[in-house]
Amino acid sequence: MPEYEAIIGLETHIQLNTQSKIFCACKADSWGAEPNTNICPVCTGLPGVLPTLNRQAVEKAILLASAMQAESIQPLSFFARKNYFYPDLPKGYQISQYDEPLARGGRFDLPLPSGECRRVTIHKLHLEEDAGKTVHAGGRRLIDFNRCGVPLVEMVTGPDLRSAEEAAFYLIRLRQLLRWLGISEADMERGHLRCDGNVSIRVPGETVLNPKTEIKNVNSIDALREAIAAEISRQIREVEAGRPIRPWTLEWDETTGTLRKMRSKETEADYRYFREPDLLPLRVDEAWKARVLAQLPELPLARRQRFVEQYGLPAYDAEILTEERSLSDYFESAVAAYGGEPKAVSNWMMNDVLRLLRERGLSAGELKLRPADLAQIIQLVDKRQINAPTGKALLDMVEETGQRPADLVAREGLGQVADTGALRALAEAVLAESPDQVAAFRAGKATLIGWFVGQLMRKSGGKADPNLARQVLEALLHEPAG
Ligand SMILES: [Zn+2]
Q1: In Å, how far are 90, 96, 146, 177, 266 from 83, measured between CA atoms?
Q2: Residue 387's pLDDT is what?
Q3: How many whole angstroms from 37 Cα to the centroid of ligand 1?
Q4: What is the CA radius of gyration of the chain?
Q5: Distances 145 to 129, 186, 351 between C-alpha atoms, Å
């Protein structure tokens, strides 16, 4: 049986997080709103109205194009009408871009777990408006126009991905980038990031592209992975049985985990595109582009690389700390405030700050525990003014009270007990209470030392210096009995 390789391209629709819709003043985000409450004559396509292009939508699309290393952000692009009839498309056409899109050519480098890097090419990137939503309920079709006119960027990749897993990685990285740039919430469950997959198979080494199918209606990364894997298996079965692959559009049914044929695929000719006569050409001059691109942040992969080179972090730490932009900013601020070894800050962040974020459902930018507070806590532990468990507890205390760590240590009396006299008194009390364990230790059960240290820590209210406590206990236990 010949082996096959999968050829996958993805078409993504990204909802931009602008204040208003792309051609009118309605709020862009209708999440949770009652149906048909966030609409106006423009976005419902009443006669005699004119669209006005939202500048913010253009700027966010330019940022994305540049982050995708577009070969050109077109100084002049045009809007077009894409004509089709569907109940949730009130105008009977969607305003989109067609032959002259905002940006052409680009690439997205995708690090794979194998260590390889997959270069995904981007064919074109354009702006368009969203259509409404059709809801099937009780045997009826209900239409909600709230989503009409929400700004979208459509981005189409080349047939560069080779497995369902790679397609999932692409979406994960794209989602990270969109949030990093601050241009979309990129929440797939809410439809901010939608993805259709084009799938075909061929014998490895062949260069032809066989007929492909298009998978629609996947609304999570897991669903995309499963749907593509199922479609690859189906195509292999068909080809093995000598049947041709037809260019169908398939719909993923998440509840049953199966693909259903929706329709034979439309061709572009079916949409009868023509230039949108109600909008001027979109001119992006050099000055505007430069102003927009001045806001382009360092991108995730570049920052990950820099964390390894500049701070000497292991690749694993750098990967986790650059998963989200505010986390990576937090790390850098904490390192600067701390002044010591960056790896120490990384350890505290990876173990303790991430736990805090998970438990409280916050992002690093939302913490009351500031980077300078984390730096101060690490310094207090370094100087042995507090012990490590107190340091960890302090993270939560600062987060809850918003007070500075050193003030909390002073006010709550959290300072480490590192005074030998005080520790010796505590150690004597522990030994006096535990004659059996003392006898066992002296009879050779040396591992009991850990138990004694635990008892002393408890007596000190967790504030004893554990290393010093151990030394004091060992000295007492090794004294001749009596
Ligand atoms: Zn409107």
Answers
A1: 11, 10, 20, 32, 12
A2: 83
A3: 10
A4: 30
A5: 12, 21, 46
The residue assigned the tokens 């009780």 is 138
Please write the tens of the pLDDT for every residue from 179-191: 999 999 999 989 9
CA 148 – ligand 1 centroid, Å: 8
Distance between Cα 40 and ligand 1 center (Å): 4
Stated as kind and residue range, the H or E segment containing 214 is strand 213-218
User: Could you report the average pLDDT of every consecutive run of 10 residues in the chain (482 residues)?
Assistant: 86 97 96 95 94 98 97 96 93 96 95 89 95 91 96 96 95 96 94 95 88 90 95 94 92 88 71 95 97 96 96 96 96 96 97 95 94 95 87 92 88 74 85 90 89 88 83 84 52
Distance 64 CA to ligand 1 centre (A): 25
Instruction: State how far the Cα of 456 lies from the Cα of 479, in Å rounded to an integer.
Output: 18
DSSP letters of 286-313? HHHHHHHHTTPPPPHHHHHHHHHHHH--
Q: How far is the CA of 280 from the centre of ligand 1 (A)?
A: 19
What is the Å distance from ligand 1's center to 10 Cα? 30
Separation in Å, CA 217 to CA 13, 251, 349, 416: 12, 6, 38, 58
The rounded Å distance from CA 49 to ligand 1 centre is 11
Q: How far is the CA of 150 from the centre of ligand 1 (A)?
A: 9
Task: Kindly give the distance from the C-alpha atom of residue 240 to the centroid of ligand 1, in angstroms, as a whole number.
Answer: 51
Other Cβ atoms within 10 Å of 347 Cβ, number: 13
* Alpha carbon of 351 to ligand 1 centroid (Å): 47
Beta carbons within 8 Å of 375's beta carbon, 6+ residues apart: 334, 335, 337, 338, 339, 345
Question: Ligand 1 centre from 25 Cα, in Å?
Answer: 6
Nearest in space to 415 (alpha carbons), one of 393, 374, 384: 384
* Residue among 344, 355, 301, 291 nearest 323 (CA): 301
**CA 147–ligand 1 middle distance (angstroms):** 9
CA 276, 279, 283, 289 torsion-angle sign:
negative
The pTM assigned to this predicted structure is 0.85
What's the pLDDT score for residue 427?
Answer: 87
Q: How far is the CA of 28 from the centre of ligand 1 (A)?
A: 9
- Expressed in angstroms and rounded, the spacing between residue 279 Cα and the centre of ligand 1 is 16
Q: How far is the CA of 275 from the centre of ligand 1 (A)?
A: 21
At a CB cut-off of 8 Å and minimum separation 6, what does 261 contact? 248, 249, 250, 251
Ligand 1 center to residue 85 CA distance, Å?
Answer: 20
pLDDT tens profile 388-437: 888 999 999 999 999 999 888 888 777 777 677 788 888 888 888 989 99
What token pair was written down for 402? 């918003």
State the Cα–Cα distance between residues 17 and 426, nearest whole angstrom.
60
